């Protein structure tokens, strides 16, 4: 009950709904950091994973790289980057977030292409499609559900971890958690955590919609 | 070297002591998680309707930031190791339940029928057939859980020096000793890689029947010889691509 009371107090306080420290603004900041981190990770991870999967090469290298990326402690990396780079904008926060998100994107996109049914791929080759056409017109559409699930997994981790950006003086929903901890107002902490969890659920919903829209009906039926 | 390995006295631990503490705080929760996850997963296999709600709950729990989890728990368990270990147990549980369920479900009905025909009861069948076949899937989950747990312990430094190696991060900032921060990050990452490698080794020992990566690639045994990053064999019999544990959890959760 204790926790529920805190949540209620936090959300019914109208001061929490206005201005730059209000929930809408913090939420927007959080979404901004998460999207940026996800975008950078996708730009790095998707092409490498997809092409490696298409070529069927570099699986072990990708596995080793993603193990190393996963092993990096996000919070430690954040502190280290802050000390090395100084508190300049969002860069020190982006590095650990990208390190976190790039591994699932890489591995899943590689594995997604590898696990495409070889029969249609061979058929496409037999029809004289170029290597690029096979990748973009056959393999990626067929592998899209898995590719999206990798992105979703990365997105959820990023949304949850982006809270640490507040530790180095940035905004986002982590502000409530870090400030609440410093001020010993647990209502803030619990409220912030609720918002982050809620945002993660919304993220799942968004990916569900994207999947409904982007995945070809034939592929969906086949699964 | 001393700049890197001279521990500030307020930590009350040597470098090796911190490593031991870190491993305990990170790996005990994974062990607890496994102990809880096995029966929960079995329930989900037994009662199929249970799986979807369980996945929803675990997905929501997984989305709670570790720091918030720690802070809320301070009220109940104080600024202690336990406060760090409870959320880590929950996160491990979240990763392990779908891994085990997937693994146990992937046992083919033929194999189960053969076991039954050999006179195995449900318990024997579970221990001698289902669990061993699920080992690769379970270990995929265990590896994710262990690595993320080792990384997350460091956050415990924010709730009153409960972060083992992570405490070096706060001290490094406080005393302006950047080398300590480097030591913390590098040691934590190395521990994660080491534990990950150890789990792979244990998995290989537990599944002597599985094709060894290097050898099978040389033989080129068709599709099943492909290196799988997800540590699952992608045989042509398996129509459905088997996603990694964590991914499967999230994927199933939205259905």
Automatic annotation (TrEMBL), chain A:
This protein's GO CC annotations: plasma membrane
TM ranges: 33-53, 60-81, 93-113, 154-177, 189-210
A single GO BP: transmembrane transport
SUPFAM superfamilies noted in UniProt: MetI-like
Superkingdom of this protein's organism: Bacteria
Cell location: Cell membrane; Membrane
Cell inner membrane among keywords: no
Key words of the record: Membrane, Transmembrane, Transmembrane helix, Transport
Membrane topology: Multi-pass membrane protein
InterPro entries per record: ABC_transp_perm/SBD (IPR051204), MetI-like (IPR000515), MetI-like_sf (IPR035906)
Domain ABC transmembrane type-1 per the UniProt entry, residue ranges: 27-214
Secretion signal, residue range per the UniProt entry: none
One Pfam family recorded for the sequence: BPD_transp_1
Keyword Membrane belongs to the record: yes
PANTHER family given in the database record: GLYCINE BETAINE/L-PROLINE TRANSPORT SYSTEM PERMEASE PROTEIN PROW (PTHR30177), POSSIBLE OSMOPROTECTANT (GLYCINE BETAINE_CARNITINE_CHOLINE_L-PROLINE) TRANSPORT INTEGRAL MEMBRANE PROTEIN ABC TRANSPORTER PROZ (PTHR30177:SF33)
Family: Belongs to the binding-protein-dependent transport system permease family.
Protein name: Osmoprotectant transport system permease protein
Gene source species: Actinacidiphila alni
Automatic annotation (TrEMBL), chain B:
InterPro entries assigned: ABC_transp_perm/SBD, MetI-like, MetI-like_sf
Localization annotation: Cell membrane; Membrane
A Pfam family matched in the record: BPD_transp_1
Keyword Transmembrane helix assigned: yes
A single Gene Ontology CC term: plasma membrane
Membrane-topology descriptor: Multi-pass membrane protein
Protein name: Osmoprotectant transport system permease protein
UniProt KW keywords: Membrane, Transmembrane, Transmembrane helix, Transport
GO terms classed as biological process: glycine betaine transport; transmembrane transport
Gene3D superfamilies from the UniProt entry: MetI-like
Domain ABC transmembrane type-1 positions: 19-203
Protein family (similarity comment): Belongs to the binding-protein-dependent transport system permease family.
Transmembrane feature ranges: 26-47, 54-74, 86-104, 133-160, 180-202
Location of region: Disordered: 213-255
């Amino acid at each position: 009950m204790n926790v529920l009371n805190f949540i209620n107090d936090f959300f019914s306080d109208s001061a929490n709904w206005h201005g730059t420290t209000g929930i809408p603004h913090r939420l927007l900041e959080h979404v901004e950091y998460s999207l940026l981190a996800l975008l950078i990770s996708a730009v790095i991870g998707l092409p490498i994973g997809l092409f490696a999967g298409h070529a069927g090469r570099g699986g072990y290298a990708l596995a080793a790289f993603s193990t190393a990326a996963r092993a990096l402690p996000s919070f430690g990396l954040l502190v280290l980057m802050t000390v090395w780079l100084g508190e300049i904008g969002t860069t020190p926060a982006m590095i650990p977030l990208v390190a976190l998100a790039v591994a699932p994107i890489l591995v899943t996109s590689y594995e997604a292409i590898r696990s495409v049914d070889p029969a249609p791929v061979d058929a496409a080759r037999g029809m004289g499609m170029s290597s690029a056409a096979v990748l973009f017109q056959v393999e990626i559409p067929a592998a899209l559900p898995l590719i999206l699930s990798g992105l979703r997994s990365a997105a959820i981790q990023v949304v949850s971890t982006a809270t640490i950006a507040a530790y180095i003086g940035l905004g986002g929903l982590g502000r409530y958690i870090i400030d609440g901890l410093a001020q010993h107002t647990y209502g803030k902490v619990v409220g912030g955590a609720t918002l982050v969890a809620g945002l993660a659920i919304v993220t799942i919903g968004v990916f569900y919609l994207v999947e409904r829209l982007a995945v070809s009906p034939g592929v969906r039926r086949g699964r | 070297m001393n700049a890197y390995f001279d521990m500030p006295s307020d930590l009350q631990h040597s470098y090796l002591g911190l490593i031991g503490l870190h491993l305990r705080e990170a790996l005990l929760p994974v062990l607890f998680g496994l102990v809880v996850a096995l029966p929960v997963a079995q329930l989900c296999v037994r009662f199929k309707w249970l799986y979807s709600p369980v996945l929803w709950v675990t997905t929501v729990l997984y989305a709670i930031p570790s720091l918030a989890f720690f802070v809320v728990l301070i009220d109940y368990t104080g600024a202690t190791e336990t406060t760090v270990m409870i959320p880590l147990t929950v996160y491990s549980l979240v990763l392990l339940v779908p891994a085990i369920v997937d693994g146990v479900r992937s046992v083919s009905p033929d194999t189960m029928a053969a076991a039954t025909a050999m006179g195995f009861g449900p318990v024997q069948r579970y221990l001698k057939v289902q669990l061993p076949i699920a080992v690769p899937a379970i270990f995929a989950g265990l590896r994710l859980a262990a690595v993320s747990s080792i990384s997350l312990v460091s956050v415990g430094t924010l709730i009153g020096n409960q972060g083992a190696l992570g405490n070096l991060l706060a001290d490094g900032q406080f005393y302006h000793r950047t080398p300590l921060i480097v030591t913390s990050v590098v040691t934590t990452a190395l521990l994660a890689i080491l534990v990950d490698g150890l789990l792979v080794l244990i998995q290989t020992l537990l599944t002597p029947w599985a094709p060894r990566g290097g050898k099978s690639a040389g033989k080129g045994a068709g599709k099943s010889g492909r290196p799988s990053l997800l540590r699952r064999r992608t045989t042509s019999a398996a129509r459905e691509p088997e996603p990694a544990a964590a991914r499967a959890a999230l994927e199933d959760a939205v259905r």
